[in-house]
Design a protein that fits this description.
Blueprint (H helix, E strand, L loop, with lengths): L18 H20 L2 E8 L7 H13 L5 E8 L2 H13 L3 E5 L8 H14 L3 E6 L7 H4 L36 E3 L8 H20 L6
Parallel strand pairs: 1-2, 1-4, 3-4, 3-5
Helix pairs in contact: 2-6, 4-6
Length: 219
C-alpha cells in the first residue's frame, strides 16, 4: 500500500485519501498477503469414503490439528472420493501437474517423525509446493496405484484390493506384479481404519511443521 503525504503542497486534491480509505486499503493488502502466504504450500489428503463417515471424536481431533496449522504456511485439505476409479483419476491428475504423490500402505518401511518432517518438506519442494497423500478405503489402495497402471492381476480399480485392509504404510516401492510410480509411506506396522489413518497423518503433518520450527511440541 502506497504511503501518501497529506500536505496540500505535495498532492493535488484528486490524490488526497481519507484516513478511513487508507486504513481500509492497508487492511486489504494485509489480508491478501496473508492469503498468499497460507496458499504457499498445499497438501492434499485423498481418501476413499464418505465425508461424514468418520466418528465425531476423529473429526474433532483432525479439526484441532487443522486449526493449529493455521499460523504456518502449510495448508491441508481432505478430498473424499466415492470409489477407487474416482480416486485413481484424481491422483493421476495430481501427478500430471507435477505434484508429489505419496501412497499410504502397510508394505513400506516406517519412518521416524524427524525423517517424516524432512521428507514432507522435500516432497513439497519436489512437487512445486504441492503434495498429495493417498489413503485407500477399507480394502486398501487400488492396485493401479500400488502396482502401476499396467497391473493385470487380482482386482480392478472398481473392486479394490481384496488382499489388504490396513491403511498407512511405507518408504519402499510396491510389489506383487508391478511397480508403482509413486512413493509408499508407512505410518505404522499396526492396523488402523482409513479414517483413523487420516487423523494420524494430520497429527504427523502438524508435528512435521513444529519439528521444522524447532518448537517444544516434539520431544
Amino acid at each position: 500500500c502506497w504511503a501518501f503525504s497529506t500536505h496540500s503542497s505535495f498532492l493535488p486534491a484528486s490524490f488526497t485519501l481519507s484516513s478511513e480509505r487508507c486504513q481500509s486499503y492497508t487492511a486489504a493488502c494485509s489480508r491478501s498477503a496473508k492469503s498468499q502466504l497460507s496458499m504457499g504450500m498445499e497438501i492434499k489428503i485423498r481418501i476413499v469414503g464418505r465425508k461424514n463417515g468418520s466418528e465425531a471424536w476423529l473429526e474433532d481431533a483432525y479439526s484441532m490439528y487443522d486449526t493449529r496449522l493455521n499460523p504456518s504456511n502449510v495448508g491441508v485439505d481432505t478430498y473424499w472420493h466415492k470409489n477407487n476409479p474416482e480416486l485413481v483419476k484424481n491422483v493421476m491428475n495430481d501427478a500430471d501437474k507435477g505434484h508429489t504423490v505419496v501412497l499410504l500402505d502397510p508394505t513400506g518401511k516406517p519412518k521416524t517423525s524427524e525423517q517424516f518432517s524432512e521428507d514432507v518438506y522435500r516432497w513439497l519442494d519436489d512437487g512445486g509446493s504441492r503434495l498429495s497423500f493417498v489413503i485407500g478405503g477399507a480394502e486398501g489402495l487400488p492396485p493401479e496405484l500400488k502396482y502401476g497402471q499396467d497391473y493385470s492381476g487380482g482386482s480392478s480399480a472398481s473392486g479394490g484390493n481384496k488382499k489388504g485392509k490396513k491403511s498407512g504404510a511405507g518408504g519402499g516401492r510396491g510389489g506383487g506384479g508391478g511397480q508403482s510410480q509413486f512413493q509408499l509411506l508407512s505410518l505404522s506396522t499396526l492396523t488402523f481404519t482409513h479414517q483413523f489413518a487420516r487423523t494420524l497423518l494430520m497429527e504427523q503433518i502438524y508435528r512435521a511443521t513444529e519439528i521444522k520450527k524447532g518448537s517444544g511440541y516434539h520431544k
